[in-house]
Amino acid sequence: MADEAVFSARQLTKIYRMGEVDVHALRGVDLELFPGELAVLLGASGSGKSTLLNILGGLDVPTSGTVIYRDHDLTAADEAELTRYRREHVGFVFQFYNLIPSLTARENVALVTDIAQDPIEAEDALELVGLGERLDHFPAQLSGGEQQRVAIARAVAKRPEVLLCDEPTGALDFRTGQLVLSVIERVNRELGTTTAVITHNAPIAKLADRVITMGDGKITGVERNPHRVTASEIQW
């Protein structure tokens, strides 16, 4: 990993107003992510993982604090700038696949490649995730794991510098989840994409270069993993 951070977040807070109650989703979070690393953000539901990921991805803004992406201050960006940032620099993978049912796997990925500056061809992106034989299948003809792999292909087809994954195996069984993780691992390794995966599933942390543990809206630990394993070696 290079020394210069892709992301540098300082003293991030996020407060949601729920009726008469203030909910503190983030409480003074400091975080850096580095080029080419695979980081796992580990924590229980409600620990602030998704809020942090959404802020890094430009889907949400903090109540206070700063996020610097390279030399861009995301917290000073307007909505148009954040939209451009998401389009040009970030790939997202969520627990639910968000595929368009009336489009084939190829066409779902092409939605991104048609607007990207230097895309991977849809066919090549699907080949990368092991779906080269399923190009013309519709989502209803694909298993949950295959749909998630289409979602990953769509995310990486625009060659994002950053891949942000929010519980990517949460809706999948163990074997299928293992396969999806192997695809994320391959993208990180072969494309050099800085990757952050959030999960509540502790064994997944073994994939990471660094494990960032969260609780009650704060980072409670950061640990470098000297013995990163492959997805096929994970048992949970």
Walk me through what this model shows.
With 236 residues, the chain is an alpha/beta fold. It has a domain at 36-51 and 89-233: 3-Layer(aba) Sandwich (Rossmann fold), CATH 3.40.50. Helices cover 28% and strands 28% of the residues. The chain is built from 6 helices and 10 strands. It has a 6-stranded mixed beta sheet, sandwiched between helices. β9 (210-215) and β10 form a beta hairpin. α3 packs parallel to α5 and α5 packs parallel to α6 (174-191). It is globular, with a radius of gyration of 17 Å. The chain starts with 6 loop residues before the first strand and ends in a 12-residue tail after the last strand. 42% of the residues are buried.
The share of residues in extended strands comes to 25-35%
So, the CATH homologous superfamily of the domain at 36-51 and 89-233?
Answer: P-loop containing nucleotide triphosphate hydrolases
| Residue-averaged pLDDT | 91
Radius of gyration based on Cα positions = 17 Å
CATH level 1 class label of the domain at 36-51 and 89-233: Alpha Beta
Tell me which oligomeric state these chains represent: single chain
Question: What is the makeup of the main sheet?
Answer: 6 strands, mixed
Q: What is the topology, as strand order, of the major beta sheet?
A: 6-7-8-3-9-10
Number of strands: 10
Helical proportion, percent range? 25-40%
Task: Report the principal-axis shape.
Answer: globular
Q: Which fold name is given in CATH as the topology of the domain at 36-51 and 89-233?
A: Rossmann fold
Query: Structural class given helices, strands, pairing?
Result: alpha/beta
What is the H-and-E element order?
EEEHEEHEHHHEHEEE
